[in-house]
Design goal:
The protein is an alpha+beta fold. The protein contains 2 helices and 9 strands. It folds into 2 domains: about 1-30; about 45-170, Immunoglobulins (Immunoglobulin-like, Sandwich).
Amino acid sequence: MNRFAHVWFAIAFVLTGVFVVSLLLATREPTPEAPIAPLPTEEGEASLTLLSPTSGTLEAGQTQTVLWESKSYTSPFIGINLIRKVGDTPARYELVRVIAEKTKNDGSAVWVPAPTTDLGEGLSIELVCVGVRKEACRAGNDGAPTSKIAVINTGRFANTASAYQAIERLNNK
């Protein structure tokens, strides 16, 4: 046998192996994915419910207290995000910023809306489960934000009338 015959034999051997492995993988029975169930507890499904702020106009730079209630939620931590609604059908939200990536699950956290990044309307506070699979915890109203807030910077208005008009526009939407 010449040396090229050895090369062709090696290539044929490798290609045959690849074909056999591909054939075995293609005919393999797919494994069904197990459904992800909520955390098992005596009280029921784990959930986080936002209590405050749920509506209204907040002023940038003023300390706010985010209040929530946790039910059957065993993790000692939660996350808090500020999100903005960007679409209706289906409802879509974008992250404005993380208020608290990981804070104690004690029912309250302090937040000071930033005068640069946190401004606008159509904002919501989102509670996020930390330390458990996201699918195993229901935050708020099945993941849909339950708050509707606006953050304004009163220092940016020329006078009281323009600030009042901005607040009225937010309340009428």
